[in-house]
Amino acid sequence: MNSEKKDFKETMEINNSEDSLDYNVEDVYKKLQSIGSFTINDSKIYVTLLKIGLSNPAVISEKSKVDRARVYDSLKRLVKRGIVEEEPVKRAPRYRAFPPDVVFGAIRRKLNNQISLATALEKQLAQIETESTEQNSVWSIQGKNKINKKFYEIIRNAEDFCFIFLTLDYSISSINELEILESIILDKLRSHPTLNIKIALKIFPDKDDQKSILNRLFHANIEIYRWKPASVLPFGLILTESEFLQTFLSGTIPKPTYGFGILMEKANQDQLLGFQHLCIWVFQQLCKKLVFTKTQRKNQNGSDEED
Fold first, then answer.
1. Is residue 261 a contact partner of residue 140, using CB atoms and an 8 Å limit?
2. How buried is 17 (Cβ within 10 angstroms: 0-12 exposed, 13-18 middle, 19+ buried)?
3. Strands 287-289 and 223-227: what pairing?
4. Cα dist from 158 to 55, 87, 240, 264, 307, whole Å
5. How far is CA 90 from CA 29, 56, 179, in A?
6. N or C: which end of the chain has fewer CB within 10 A?
7. What is the pLDDT of residues 152-172, one digit of tens each?
8. 217-254 burial string, b = 16+ CB within 10 Å, else e?
9. How far is CA 192 from CA 105, 108, 170, 240, 266, in A?
10. Partners of 84 in the beta sheet?
11. Spatial distance between the Cα atoms of 203 and 225, rounded to a whole number of angstroms
C-alpha cells in the first residue's frame, strides 16, 4: 500500500515533441476506437497520459485538446475499465495510464474468451433443427414507441450498410429524437467503424441545433442527404443487409405522427437488391448530398478546434 502511494508521487519525464514519434497519432486514435473500448476522447486522453505520465485533469485537457468537461467523463470510463489509474486521495486526484501491455493484454484475454464461447455456442446451436420452412417474415408494428425501439434495434444489428430516410417528425418537432439517433449511430460506429450509413431528411436552415447534429454525423463519415423542397416522402424507411422497416403517416394533428410500420426480417437477396435500388434511386433523384466544411473555433483553453 505504501509503495503504491509512493509510486503516485513519482512523475515521468517524457519528451512531448511530436517530431520524435515514429507513428501516426491519428491512425492510433482510429485503431483504438475500432476495437470498441475507446471513444475518440478516450483515445486522445489515454495516449496523452502515456506521454505525460501522472497528471491532473487541467493538464490532461490542455495536452489532449479535449474540453475539460469531456476529460472528466472519459477519465471516469477509463478508470472503471482498468485503462487509467486514479490517485487514491480524497480530493483532486491525479491520473496515470496503465502500460499498453497491461491494457491490451486484458483486452486480448477478454476477446479470446468471447471467441471461444462463440465457437462453442455456434457448434451447439447448429445441432438444433428448425421446424419452419419460412425464409423471411413480415410483421406490422403499431405505436410510435414500438417503432422507435425497433428502428434503433435495426441500426444496432447492422453489419454492412444502413440506409435511413427519416420522417418529418425528426425535422419539425423536438430535436430530442435526432439527438437520440445521433447517440445510437455514433455508438454503433465505435464497434463497426466501416459501416456504410446514409441518412436523408428534411432540413431547415434556421435550425442551428439540427445543423450541429448533422455536422457531427457528417464528420463521422456518414453521408447526409436533404430532401429537395418539393420531394418529401410521406413515409419513413430503414434498410440494412437483413432487415427492412417502412413507417407510414398515421396522424397530422398537432404534428405529423408515424405510428404504423411494416417490418421484413431475413429478406432474401433478390428482395434486398430491390430495396437497395429503391433507396439509391431516392438518394439520387429526390435528395441532394450535403457537404460540411471544417472551420476553426477556440475552445475553453484557447486552442483551435474543428467544427
1. yes
2. exposed
3. antiparallel
4. 40, 40, 6, 14, 28
5. 32, 14, 36
6. N
7. 999 999 999 999 999 887 877
8. bbeeebbbbbbeeeebbeebbbbbebbbbbbebeeeee
9. 22, 18, 24, 14, 21
10. 97
11. 9
How confident is the model at residue 11, as a pLDDT? 40
Read off the pTM.
Answer: 0.53
Report residue 67: phi and psi, to 5°: -55, 145
Secondary structure of residue 267 in the 3-state scheme: coil
Q: What is the pLDDT of residues 234-290, one digit of tens each?
A: 888 999 988 889 998 877 777 777 888 888 877 777 888 888 998 999 999 999 998
Q: Give the residue among 290, 276, 282 at the shortest CA–CA distance from 233.
A: 282
Tell how many helices (H) and how many strands (E) occur in the chain: 11, 12
Tell me which CATH code domain 2-103 carries.
Answer: 1.10.10.10
Distance (Å, whole) CA 258 – CA 250: 5
**Angstrom distance (rounded) from CA 186 to CA 173:** 22
Q: What is the pLDDT of residue 185?
A: 94
Q: What is the CATH number of domain 137-292?
A: 3.30.870.10
Question: Is residue 239 a contact partner of residue 162, using CB atoms and an 8 Å limit?
Answer: yes
CA dist 126 and 115 (Å) reads 16
Residue with cell 455514433: 186
Checking if the pLDDT of 76 tops 90, the result is yes
C-alpha cell at 64: 489532449
Residues 6+ apart with CB under 8 A from 189: 195, 197, 220, 221, 222
pLDDT of residue 302: 53
Q: Where are the domains of the chain?
A: 2-103, 137-292
